[in-house]
Sequence to fold (397 residues):
Amino acid sequence: MKAKRKVIVVGPLPPPISGQALAVQMLVDGFAERGVSYRVVNLTSGTREKIGTKFRALQYAKILLDYIWKTAFGKKTVYITIAQSLQGFWRDFFMVWIAVFFGHRILLHLHGGNYDRFYDAQQAWLRTVIRVTLRRADGIYVLGEKLIGMFDFEPALAPKISVITNGIPIAAEDQSGSKRLPDSPDEPIRLLYLSNLIESKGYLHVLEAVRQLVHDYRLNVKCSFYGKFLASRDDIMVRDAEHGRQLFETFILQNGLSDYVEFGGTVEGEAKIKALEEAHFFVLPTNYDNEGQPLAIIEALAYGHVVITTDYRAISDMVTDKQNGAFVPFADPDSIARNIADIASDHERYAAMSEAAKIRYRNQFTREAHLERMFSLLLEEKYETTQNGRYGRMTNV
Fold:
């Protein structure tokens, strides 16, 4: 038997809500349910707003002191959700080398798909530092098979890389059967955009697609947007979050879409469940720099949405074109509208695609499947699910 090690979880916890924060919270909850000895170093700032450099430095210093205190005594497994930015790398750098100093087992998890671009953008000496630092890890986890290639810049990392797909907790009653499109033309076909409103996630293209569906295809649709307006380094047209909101609201007014589009801001709990239950199509035509494997798409699959998205990063692990959704080119609202109109014209086809979405979720993206894989790698133990949904340890691996 291998000696048990306490696990140090280094990652963000909500609030604010993000896919990565929800994944870390799910892992921590799983540890608590199974009686695993763990401690958390919370990386969240509690806000997504811009803060000053001095405040950020003080925040990082506080996080590092907390990390040192929690890793200083005894041999541990240190699980770090790593960043794909220069500022975030230096935080990761110190954490990895502190763990090396104390002789801990080091596991790194990337909840994104942009590490190779981050690496390529650095100077030669810093690329060497990145490679040497990553080589000290005992394991590196990515979200999908397509993302393994992000680390091709260092061949020595290949045997350390494992795939852990995301998972989400969804009630069992939401996982069976298929959605049906409304029979009455007076009842709208409901579209859902559930993600932060960032230009490269395609929310403005979704708006244009709605305009076409309403005015060109003459379809009764209702599109609900949920999320927070944010600026990103890969913005082209949007200057800042407020400018993005202005573009959004102006487009709706100028194109007579007030009866067909609603914006609900950040949504949680019962309101989020209601939005997921009501929608027929989930639309996320993303090309976002930091995208990896969006949790929102997994939620959409669990509720039987037909997903309209891009073949980008690890999304093809979740969506199969013409089976449970449709791939569209980025920045192509014509294709978004055309695919929705085409699928909506055949109710039986829609129902089959909806059922395929739920099957994909049940087979690959449940909370239980995700945590079983996480525990297998983090704790070097296998777990099995009992009939009551709890976990029992099987054996060391």
